[in-house]
Amino acid sequence: MNRENKRKQFEKGYYKTHGCSDSFTCKVCGRLVVPTGAGSNHRNHCPNCLSSLHLDIEPGDREADCGGIMEPVGVWVRKNGEWALIHRCRRCGHLSSNRVAADDNPMKLMSIAMKPLSQPPFPLEKIEEMTTLMGGDGQLSYG
Are 65 and 5 in contact (CB under 8 A)? Predict the structure, then answer.
């Protein structure tokens, strides 16, 4: 059974309290994704490309009708130091946060984390200009 059809079989909220031990094939990279190695009972994205499917409105509810590809667009660090992925649905734009799994591709994670630094919304020369204006020491110089 594929994971898109699970909501038809289980009552609402089932996956909030029950782990999922089913394997699935990633719709983006085509890899077989197995539940072992995630470090959790709730595997919700491919450990290779970090993509997922838009199945939930709230985690585990399987109530979303969209079914679009959820692409990883960012990472953030929770209060306890745990990393989480930010996914955005290619079809409807929905954003969600999912904890990073133990076997997630570390190079892909770092690539996502570094993207804002490698592609700033301003020319890099602006940093040098601002540093010079600040006297090179982080303090604004007047006069």
Answer: no
How far is the C-alpha of 18 from the C-alpha of 48, rounded, in Å? 24
pLDDT of residue 12: 63
Q: How far is 45 from 134, CA to CA, in rounded Å?
A: 45
What does the pLDDT read at residue 7?
47
Q: Is 20 within a domain? A: yes
Tokens read off for 136:
């090179």
What CA–CA distance (Å, rounded) separates 62 from 13?
8
pTM check: above 0.85? no
Number of domains within the chain: 1
**Torsion sign, CA atoms 65, 69, 73, 74:** positive
Q: Residue 92 is encoded by which pair of tokens?
A: 């409807």
Give the span between the Cα atoms of 46 and 24, in whole angstroms.
9
* Residue 143, in any domain of the structure: no
Per-residue pLDDT, averaged over 112-140, amounts to: 81
